[in-house]
Design brief:
Length: about 90
């Protein structure tokens, strides 16, 4: 328990001494990680990018949902490629 308190004290001290540049960079990094599924969807899965972006806001509070959105953003076109390879019709929306 002492270790957690010492880590918290170190973090609290570092946070209080941070300047505005660090806080700005930290905020940008935090937002980039939070919206990583949306960014991946824009690059890799444009068809579902709107849905992923909409679900990204509440999913950031849950690690499981955030990871699921990342997987969906990365593998969105994979289903169509596998269907084409198997000579199946793509799933309609």
């Amino acid at each position: 328990m002492e270790t957690i308190q010492s880590y918290f004290a170190i973090f609290n001290n570092a946070w209080q001494q941070a300047d505005w540049v660090f806080l700005l960079l930290f905020g940008l990094f935090f937002l980039a990680v939070w919206f990583l599924p949306s960014l991946l969807a824009l690059l890799l899965n444009r068809r579902h990018a709107g849905k992923i972006a909409l679900l990204n806001v509440p999913a950031g509070f849950s690690v499981i949902a955030w990871v699921a959105l990342c997987v969906w953003a990365v593998t969105g076109k994979l289903g169509d490629k596998l269907a084409a390879r198997a000579k199946l019709a793509p799933v309609a929306e």
